[in-house]
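Ops channel
N.P.: pipeline sanity check, posting one input/output pair.
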């Protein structure tokens, strides 16, 4: 049943464009930040890409608050997916992961913290396979949460800053975009080296 729901979400649910989402969330007034965090957590729990949420965070709240709310939302959703995977079991999660299953399982083997950090940072690997794979393939909660906190911050800031730059193309926002992507690249190399060392 869970597999069917995940597949349906992946192929049928699309988030509205960032500007439409901005208008809808801002319509909630002073509780818009809470609505945003809750919606982000739900999206992070599913195979729906989280990128649009982070960009919308920058459009709505700016770099600082947008980054804070995005990090909180994505961590809550990721943690929920981790525990959902634990309750489903390894075989069920392998089916849910589909094409990602072999890649995620082989990367996580033997280097929990370092592997989660690397997979979080490497471009092209969505958050949700890492969340479910970590829960199903034996990564401890401590390693999962620790690595996630470290690794999601620069990526979320870079996407939020992009949204803030679209809303207000200042030198400050442009600088944050460039610097955050440099941090992502540097951390990716660092995490990959740590991961290889840990596996050896």
């Amino acid at each position: 049943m869970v597999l069917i729901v995940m597949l349906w979400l992946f192929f049928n649910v699309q988030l509205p464009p960032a500007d439409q989402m901005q208008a809808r969330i801002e319509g909630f007034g002073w509780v818009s930040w809470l609505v945003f965090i809750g919606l982000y957590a739900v999206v992070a729990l599913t195979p729906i890409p989280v990128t649009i949420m982070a960009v919308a965070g920058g459009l709505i709240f700016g770099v600082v608050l947008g980054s804070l709310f995005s990090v909180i939302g994505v961590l809550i959703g990721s943690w929920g997916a981790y525990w959902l995977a634990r309750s489903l079991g390894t075989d069920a999660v392998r089916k849910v992961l589909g094409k990602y299953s072999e890649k995620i399982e082989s990367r996580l083997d033997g280097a929990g913290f370092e592997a989660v950090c690397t997979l979080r940072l490497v471009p092209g690997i969505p958050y949700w396979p890492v969340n479910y794979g970590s829960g199903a393939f034996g990564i401890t909660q401590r390693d999962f949460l620790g690595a996630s906190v470290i690794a999601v911050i620069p990526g979320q800031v870079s996407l939020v800053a992009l949204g803030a730059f679209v809303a207000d193309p200042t030198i400050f926002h442009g600088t944050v975009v460039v610097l955050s992507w440099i941090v992502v690249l540097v951390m990716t190399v660092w995490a990959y080296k740590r991961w290889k060392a840990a596996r050896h």
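N.P.: looks fine end to end. Confidence is low (pLDDT under 50) at residues 1-13.
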